[in-house]
């Protein structure tokens, strides 16, 4: 039995609430159980210097965790002068994941910055960030279309992410902190709405895992992603 009493293929309760930020061009408050992340999308009229003259835009991300998002207070990374290696890894993951489903040429020479700020952490903050950032980005592009900044929505597909792992010998979906901290194998999957794999991260915390176990985790992830994509569709549906 999982600590949360969930079935092996059961997600935590997931909510995606768009339009939560008054000033951002796009926003989403995403919750995976007790993990909550505020995702905002900000339009910048100039893209990176290295893309100047290419006609292409860019989508990038920044990730941070509030000091009391965890059981004990953690120092703000700004006080140390640079983001940690973990933070840099996660924000690069978020940026890569969203760019995989965006027509950068359709943005023009502009940049969208996705800020993912963890309000409360209980496992799966990076996967929640990717899933919520897609909703924020969709809202930003809709905002741009409504003002004739772009003529078409540059999003080519959905993308979402979910964690899986082997806990007490059983492959399970969407690990919370209690499971993640004791998992024998920990993996994160980023998958598009059409089923394309964007990123797979898998680590054996104890004994190595088998190919059969990897495929079992992938099957769980695909089922979870299908549910998350349905929730994204509901979140961005016209009101």
Question: Keywords, please?
Answer:
alpha+beta, 30% helix, 5-stranded mixed beta sheet, 4-stranded antiparallel beta sheet, single chain, 9 strands, Ribosomal Protein S5, domain 2, 5 helices, 239 residues
Q: What would your notes on this structure say?
A:
This protein has helices spanning about 85-100, 105, 125-145, 175-180, 210-235, and strands at about 15-20, 25-30, 35-45, 60-65, 110-120, 160-165, 170-175, 185-190, 195-205. It is globular, with a radius of gyration of 18 Å. The N and C termini lie far apart (about 40 Å). The chain is an alpha+beta fold and about 240 residues long. About 30% of the residues lie in helices and about 30% in strands. The strands form two sheets. A five-stranded mixed beta sheet has the order 1-2-3-5-4. A four-stranded antiparallel beta sheet has the order 7-6-8-9, with helices on both faces. The protein has one domain: 2-Layer Sandwich (Ribosomal Protein S5, domain 2). The longest helix is centred in the C-terminal third of the chain and has 26 residues, at about 210-235.
């Amino acid at each position: 039995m999982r600590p949360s009493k969930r079935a092996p293929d059961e997600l935590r309760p997931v909510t995606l609430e768009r339009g939560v930020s008054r000033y951002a061009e796009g926003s989403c408050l995403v919750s995976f159980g007790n993990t909550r992340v505020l995702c905002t999308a900000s339009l910048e009229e100039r893209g990176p210097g290295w893309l100047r003259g290419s006609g292409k835009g860019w989508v990038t991300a920044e990730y941070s965790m509030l000091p009391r998002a965890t059981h004990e207070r953690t120092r703000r990374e700004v006080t140390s002068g640079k983001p940690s290696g973990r933070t840099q890894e996660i924000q690069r993951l978020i940026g890569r994941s969203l760019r995989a489903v965006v027509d950068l040429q359709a943005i023009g020479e502009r940049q969208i910055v996705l800020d993912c700020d963890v309000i409360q952490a209980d496992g799966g903050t990076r996967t929640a960030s990717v899933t919520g950032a897609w909703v924020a980005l969709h809202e930003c592009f809709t905002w741009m279309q409504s003002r004739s900044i772009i003529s078409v929505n540059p999003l080519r597909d959905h993308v979402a992410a979910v964690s899986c792992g082997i806990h007490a010998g059983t492959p399970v979906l969407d690990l919370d902190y209690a499971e993640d901290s004791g998992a024998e194998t920990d993996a994160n999957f980023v998958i598009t709405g059409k089923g394309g794999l964007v990123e797979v991260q898998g680590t054996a915390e104890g004994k190595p895992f088998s190919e059969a176990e990897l495929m079992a985790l992938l099957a769980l992830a695909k089922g979870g992603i299908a549910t998350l994509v349905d929730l994204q569709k509901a979140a961005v549906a016209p009101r």
